[in-house]
Write a structure and sequence with these properties.
Elements: H1 7-14, E1 24-25, E2 28-29, H2 31-43, H3 55-60, E3 65-67, E4 75-78, E5 87-91, E6 96-103, E7 106-114, H4 115-122, E8 125-130
Antiparallel strand pairs: 1-2, 3-8, 4-5, 4-8, 5-6, 6-7
Length: 133
Amino acid sequence: MQALMTPAEFVNRAVGVPWVKWRSDWRGMDCFGCVVLWFREVLGVEVGPVPEMDIEAGFHSLPQWRECDPEAGATVWMAWRDGAPTHCGVLLDARRVLHAEGGEGKPGSVRISRLSALQRVYGEAKFYRYSTC
């Protein structure tokens, strides 16, 4: 088994990695790919592959997500549309979120943003833990 990274090690390595749709590795990742890689590298948990579909379908295909209080390490789901999120990231502390932002034809990368700024842009943020039980 490979050694897990600390949250700080993960953040230091991830910030600046290019946004690439449906990727979840150190050469590129989208927002859900960043969450999947966080779980794999920091928590040692496989939440499955990055679905080659919209994030809404990926969120609904994993029933292990349980809503929780905003706490470090929680997944932040935001930009809700028809009961499903269209953006996500990892809550680093009470104020900061690690997420990959970009789009097809719109270059982007993994970055840290203030939670309050993301809430202004994307609207409501909900916090979830992934339960393996």
